[in-house]
Amino acid sequence: MLEHEERRDLCGTWGFVPGSLKAENVFDRLRPDSPLAWGPVAVPSCWNGSRWMSIVGEPYATDGWAAGAPAFKDHRGVGWYRTSFTVPPAWADRRIHIRFLAVAARAKVWLNGSLVGEHLGAYASFTIDLTGHIKSSSENRLVVQVWGKNCFYPDDERRFDEGGHHLFVPGRTVEIPVGESLDNAGIWQPVELFATGPAYIEDIDVEAGLEEAESADCRRDGRILARVRMARAGVERIPVDVTLALVERATGREVRKETKRTHLPDERTVLTFRWPSLAVAAWSPESPTLYELRLAVEHDGERWQTARLPVGFKRFEIRNGTFHLNGDPYFLRGAGTPAHPLIPSDGQYIDRFLGLCKEANLNGVRFHTEPPSQSWLDGCDRAGLLVIYEFALMQQAPAAGATRREIRDLVHQAKHHPCLALYCLSNESDFLPGLAGMSGYPSMREYLADLREAVLEEDASLPVYHNAGYTYHEDGDVRDWHIYGGWYDNSIYSFEAIMRGQAMMEALSPREGVSMAPGGLVDRRNRKFRADAHKPVILTEFVAAYTADDGHLFQYPLKVRRIGRSPDPGNSRSLWFQAFLLRETVEIMRRARDGTNRLCGLMPFALFNWFFHPLETDRLAPKPAIAALRDAMEPLHLSIRCWSRHRFGTDALAAEFFLIHDDATRRRVEPGEVGYRVVTDAGAVVAEGRVAAASVSYYEVAMVPLRVALPDVPGERIVPARLEAEWRSGGGVVSRNMVDLLLAPARLRPMARLPASDRSAHARVWLVDTGERAASVLAALAIPSRCRAELPPSPDGLDLLVIGPDMLPCLGRDDLARLRALAKAGLTVLVLEQDVYDPSRPPIVIDWVDGAPLRIMREDDHVDDFVHLPDADSPIFDGLEPEHFRMWNGNTVIVSSYLRQGDESNHRQAKTRFGARGGYRVRKLECVKSWAECFNFLRDDALIEVPLGAGRVVFSQIEATRRFGDDPVATIYIGNLLRYCLGQRTQSTPDR
Predict the structure, then answer these.
(1) Residue 836 scores a pLDDT above 80
(2) What CA–CA distance (Å, rounded) separates 888 from 502?
(3) In this structure, are strands 732-744 and 646-648 parallel, antiparallel, or unpaired?
(4) What pTM value is reported for the model?
């Protein structure tokens, strides 16, 4: 977008009065002495604030507003703006133009009582020639009528699908793209006046790039193709000189200059400047060299117009399924998304925010569901950040005509920015496949193909893909996935398996968190992973784990509302969890790239969520997540793959060191070594050594295996430790990294038995099981038991009844009734983990408490690597800390199915100020004790105790028996749990 030198900023405080969609007396709004009560409103801003990405943004601001609570925050529909201005005396004989950088979403403009122009569309800029209506010697009155986005997206009829998910499109046509900021309304980007002569540059179309070369080693020159559209008004054919100069911005060096003379035979004339073989420096994130085109229009030596346009020289393309930048393979290490709709024009904020992104070793950024403003694109040009430019189609299919026009305008205005790398047409549109029918297309495939042509008509130099996330068809240049491993779906371990491109159906079992149903999540993605092997694969959404400004997990207020206290005082655990999950998933993806899977980029979601005070320039500060991101995103990076992080003394520790080379400024890292040591938190070095590391060339990933014997650990408790490693080459350190470990003394293995004085050794236990796992656990703990396939005839002579893993589905309805009766008679019943992750199995429903059944059920495709302990002081957790349950050991998960209390009819989506997606109104039963809670909303349980008559039933969904003997946390936990069930009794409780 041209920057005019003779310009005047009209931003500031304007007058505002609410309007209506109904017919209004326009004259009352145009007259100078209007009787209406015009209130103050800031321009640029939305009169109703800005509520964008409410699931992430709302916890940061009072009542969900980006800048406090605007006076007109509750007004919806139409608004009227007015301001007054005078023009400089020097502009008396000039043509005066007004430019709106963006108005949401339709504008009509009056000057001094005359309608001078209008525009439809919330994102593209538009310019109006005011000459003929302007007063050069007195004040000018400007009035703008604005229709907010909600006029084109009436969300008063929101509805939910059968699964309770909020549908963004309520079954009616959306006229224009409105993105995810559905309520935004107003003049939300800057307004300016500029002056020209009677003959002037109306527009410029620029293509800047690098000449193609036969190989990456060949020197390539820059090229410019500029089409300057000239216009004249109020004069006949007239000779003018149009000068175009290319200047290096940092040094002022003039690279090329050319002047063309034209007599403007028509009212509009296009002058073409074609400059090949320019001696310029290439733009890249590592070296963001910028140039600018300087334009001038002169007539008989009189300067009529001057303007400039920033440009850079790069070539971003796809070769053999890999991104290439300026001839070399290039891996996108990015994130999404900045707060660009909330703060679209503050250059100081933009530079600070993007500077912190660069410090975090990012080379790209994704602008999610809302096209970035020119100010953000300028900032990315300066900082050196490649941009995924996503249009405003958030599960929407607006009328194709208006959408095509706005997309073309946006591409035309943005394409000169060297930071642009990829165009993305929509976000998660495949989630609602019937959208396109609203616009008259048979499918989203045809609809998006039409819009793709609109992009290519303006800019065919960059790759275009149709949909971010949920993309299973073959269209578009890129495959883009959204996979929230460790959060909404999949365990972290199975997330890595997906990224490594393994054959899921053979390599993993349902126990490891992978849907085995035909067409299931992982199988579907894996098949398309192979089918689209010729295209680059990027992940533009993963991680999640939103934390609010004070650091608490976004979901915690729901927990506080239910239990009346914070599950994380001080927010240290939630900040840790966000940083941990971010680091683990990024590390997985850095390791995953190889020669077969075409993984070419990663962009974890919710970028501005990783800062304290993310909407304030002076207080903007990184959370721990940013430090984790910085370490995991190093261009030269040592990544440690170690899934056996809980070890007994004398065990072997197995790991793999991945040497990752994405540093575009360095061709090769010479052979070296990886030094390692295992050190406890107290500073004791348990093991150390070094392994040889081969040379690593640019865009390669090398692996070095490690297997080291661990000595025994003194003491009686689990000891926190770390595996620390250093990659060294050429006498210096290339990269450092570490992973947390838990080391336990060998004496804590189950073979140590229980003390003879412990009454558990003399217990009378009945085990219902057809397998050997639970029996071997009891035997190892020296707890005598009788193993049967049926329930005991009576509770007489028994201290504990144990239902083995996966045995509940084998019991009939009569058996469940007898089980309940045994508990009421005074018997303690322990139900070990019952796996229903296999989607072919229905939930297990038991009406233990009349009218409020307990369900053991799976939660879509989600499994848990983490649980929260509301009462960590319980004897069940003796010798264990809450941190020990942050991540399970090896290739499994802590919880694969959930315990859900209460009547299912209570499961309604909670509509709070945190958004409809905030969770569920679940009223847990007061008589039930929850010892461990799981799922990212903490709404379900992993360990509960239900009092029944004189007895009790304890349900444990923590997968301890499967890890017993190998994992010290699982081993200690199951021993504690059995002792708890044998050694304590509850008071008689009336059955409810």
Answers:
(1) no
(2) 22
(3) parallel
(4) 0.89
